[in-house]
Amino acid sequence: MSTSGEDLLLTQLDAIAKGVSETFAPFCEVVVHDLKNPQHAILSIHNNLSGRDVGAPATELGLARIASPDFPNILANYANQFADGRPVKSTSVGIKNAQGEYVAALCLNVDMTLFRGMQHALAQFTQLAADAVTEHLEPNGAAAIRLHIDHFAARLATTPRALKAQERKLLLQELKDSGLLDVKRAMETIAQHLGVSRASVYLYAKE
């Protein structure tokens, strides 16, 4: 690839970097490295979170790529950190020229600070007491009715809401024979699971 071709590649890579950074802002920094110029490798930084400057030298990873064309093309989701200690999830993609030499790299650095805070908050919010009492917020037997309906539909290779009228009649007969129609608010549970009105369920049960 000619020098002009490599310059065009960097220009296009910079456009991609800008689009990615705008999509994942404000959490993701996207950096374009010009590996042909390791002393001033950083060509651009979009959504700068690390505090680095354009023209800064290549990192150890960049230098490793320059040294060996066999260096992995993609290093995804590896642990990293910014200078101030913030945890980072990084991904680095190497770009080769026609001769198989690394000439550029696209690096994504995601600030994990907020996400880890959210993770801890969610873990605390969803934590349940080990000695909590048991309480059922649905009519007794409703789960058995829904399970029977699901099994019935599965035997016909369909879903409860896709059952045809004749199939619903057969279903109601099965539920009656199994005693599940005697469950409190059974008709309401069946109607909700089938996606039909209670009047329709009563009609199917009578036929």
Distance between the termini: 78 Å
CATH superfamily of the largest domain: PAS domain
Q: Count of helices?
A: 7
* Oligomer designation: single chain
Main β-sheet description: 5 strands, antiparallel
Beta content: 15-25%
Helix content: 40-55%
The Rg value, from CA coordinates, equals 30 Å
Within the CATH hierarchy, at the fold level, what is the topology of the largest domain?
Beta-Lactamase
How many E strands? 5
**How many discrete domains?**
2
- CATH second-level architecture of the largest domain: 2-Layer Sandwich
Give the overall form: elongated
Q: Given the helix and strand composition, which structural class is it?
A: alpha+beta
CATH class division of the largest domain: Alpha Beta
Mean pLDDT: 91
Brief overview, please?
With 207 residues, the protein is α+β, with helices and mostly antiparallel strands. It contains seven helices and five strands; from the N terminus they run αββαβββααααα. The protein has a five-stranded antiparallel sheet, with helices on both faces.
Structure description:
The chain has about 210 residues and is α+β, with helices and mostly antiparallel strands. The protein folds into 2 domains: about 5-110, Beta-Lactamase, CATH 3.30.450.20; about 140-205, no CATH class. Helix content is about 45%, strand content about 20%. It contains 7 helices and 5 strands; from the N terminus they run H-E-E-H-E-E-E-H-H-H-H-H. It has helices at about 5-25, 60-65, 115-125, 140-155, 165-175, 185-195, 200-205; strands spanning about 30-35, 40-45, 75-80, 85-95, 100-110. It has a 5-stranded antiparallel beta sheet, sandwiched between helices. Helix 6 crosses helix 7 (about 200-205). The longest helix is centred in the first third of the chain and has 22 residues, at about 5-25. It is elongated, with a radius of gyration of 30 Å. The termini are far apart. The mean pLDDT is about 90. This is Putative transcriptional regulator YheO. InterPro entries: DauR-like, DauR-like_HTH, YheO. It holds the Pfam family PAS_6.
